[in-house]
Specification:
With about 250 residues, the protein is mostly helical. It is built from 11 helices and 2 strands. The chain has a two-stranded antiparallel ribbon. It starts with a helix and ends with a strand.
């Protein structure tokens, strides 16, 4: 199933894009982003480099993409297991069903059964140099999407990969992340990918319809979500060639 069809079906399965604005990040039991990432490590990572000028969205380039090794990172990477993917989707649908209703959850489950959400995620982010099979890439994509919704801007590939490096540094410095098994890393990464798809679909639908009010509400929801879940204010971050740096 083409990525666009999957995204539109995900929006439909949630009844309306407005449903996405009130949802926290859906993660498996005992996965708290703030605990896994550690607020002090987040602040250290985004506060140690001098900011450089942020490029406007219109000037972003897809040319001269840096080459990344395809070898899995043993600290944040994983070898995907179909069994884990199936479990992640079941858990995601169950949790979403508690928030959007059983009927909508059944539609979401049907969409996932017909397509490949992880492949859809990959098609969206691959031009920025991100890839599946690594928690750092999944979290970087999720963080960047929410920053985009909050600020109405996008980054270029250099900036995206800089954020990916920041996220990787945060993860590998955290004992809680180090204690995750390979299956748990996959579980966390693919659940973040599913959250990304739902939020990307809602924001993309609002953008296509020119619904500025909905885009603002989705942006405000992203700010509230990250303030509560990661202890950071997305509107107090700027994106440059070294990644995220604090404003002021």
């Amino acid at each position: 199933m083409p990525a666009r069809i999957v995204l539109l079906a995900l929006v439909a399965s949630l009844a309306t894009p407005a449903a996405a604005q009130d949802m926290p990040t859906v993660l498996p039991s005992n996965y708290e982003l703030l605990d896994i990432l550690n607020k002090q490590r987040i602040e250290a990572s985004i506060g140690t480099r001098q900011p450089r000028a942020t490029l406007p969205a219109a000037s972003t380039s897809r040319k001269s993409r840096p080459v990344r090794s395809q070898a899995p990172d043993t600290t944040t990477g994983y070898r995907p297991s179909p069994a884990v993917s199936a479990r992640v989707r079941r858990q995601f649908v169950t949790t979403m069903g508690e928030r959007v209703g059983a009927a909508n959850a059944r539609q979401l489950a049907a969409v996932m059964e017909r397509g490949d959400p992880i492949a859809s995620w990959s098609r969206i982010v691959t031009s920025d140099g991100l890839r599946s099979g690594d928690v750092a890439d999944a979290l970087a994509a999720y963080w960047l999407l929410n920053w985009t919704m909050a600020n109405g801007k996008e980054g270029n590939q250099t900036q995206v990969l800089a954020v990916r490096d920041q996220v990787h540094a945060i993860l590998v410095s955290n004992p809680r992340h180090a204690a995750l098994s390979e299956a748990q890393r996959q579980e966390m990464a693919e659940t973040l990918m599913l959250n990304f798809l739902v939020q990307h679909a809602a924001y993309g639908d609002a953008f296509k319809r020119g619904d500025q009010a909905m885009m603002r509400r989705l942006g405000d929801a992203a700010v509230a979500r990250f303030r509560g879940e990661m202890g950071i204010d997305l509107r107090r971050l700027q994106l440059g060639d070294t990644g995220f740096t604090p404003i002021g």
